[in-house]
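Per your request, structure below.
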């Protein structure tokens, strides 16, 4: 399997950086052990500090996504990146509902770093994912059970079968590939556009490479995505999900998200 961004996306957004991790063992994910609770408490404390220091729109990580959304012709107060939507909800409620241990962990990491994270069930993805401009033929399944076709030129996460696994880039994920209690193999993608994206994503990667194994998840492959290294290729023991023919997986390099967002929710001002 693979993950990559198409060249036109890089041309339009040259500051783009990402961290990608392919994982398995998700069926065994736990959240109740002591180290997991301590890790989540530390991340939540960081979220509280961030919210006390600035509004979501003033955070450079989110300001960069707002600028990108504006350039794509989207109102930033109508279409918010996943991390902003999570932080806004948390600021109002000081809590998030639980969906799945992996998703819940990734949601708090996303808030702590103010960086959107998506996670996809690889058994529902055909061959791999390319982030590209839509041509209008792609199919997106909503959480209300409806089928949508992204507008031409909208940035989507799409696979070889034409499924749009996310709409409006970091806004809303498809119900097709959401992590559920049946998920065992997943792809995690964190993307950023702000000036210190590379450094912040490196720190986020260190958090994930420590936190995921503690929760019982195995990292199969990982890669930091930038202008010179644009593609993650990976495979799972026993063959790839969704009938994919992928190249040999690369090893995770530690130093070098969805239920309901890591799902990208729509929220209006």
């Amino acid at each position: 399997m693979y993950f990559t961004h198409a060249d036109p996306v890089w041309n339009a957004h040259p500051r783009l950086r990402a961290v990608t991790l392919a994982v398995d063992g998700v069926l065994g994910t736990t959240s109740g052990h002591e180290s997991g609770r301590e890790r989540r408490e530390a991340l939540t404390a960081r979220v509280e500090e961030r919210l006390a220091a600035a509004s979501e729109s003033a955070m450079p990580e989110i300001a960069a996504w707002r600028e990108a959304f504006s350039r794509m012709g989207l109102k930033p107060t109508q279409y918010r990146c996943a991390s902003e939507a999570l932080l806004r909800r948390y600021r109002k409620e000081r809590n998030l509902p639980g969906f799945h241990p992996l998703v819940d962990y990734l949601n708090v990491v996303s808030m702590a770093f103010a960086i959107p994270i998506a996670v996809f069930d690889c058994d529902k993805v055909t061959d791999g994912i390319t982030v590209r401009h839509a041509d209008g033929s792609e199919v997106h399944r909503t959480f209300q059970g409806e089928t949508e076709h992204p507008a031409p030129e909208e940035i989507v996460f799409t696979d070889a079968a034409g499924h749009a696994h996310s709409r409006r880039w970091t806004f809303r994920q498809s119900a097709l590939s959401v992590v559920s209690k049946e998920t065992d193999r997943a792809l995690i993608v964190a993307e950023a556009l702000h000036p210190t994206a590379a450094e912040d994503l490196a720190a986020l990667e260190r958090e994930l490479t420590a936190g995921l194994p503690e929760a019982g998840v195995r990292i199969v492959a990982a890669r930091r995505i930038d202008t010179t290294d644009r593609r993650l290729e990976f495979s799972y023991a026993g063959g790839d999900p969704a009938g994919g023919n992928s190249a040999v997986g690369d090893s995770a390099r530690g130093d070098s998200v969805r239920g309901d967002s890591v799902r990208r929710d729509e929220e209006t001002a």
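DSSP finds six helices and twelve strands in the chain.

Regards,
D.
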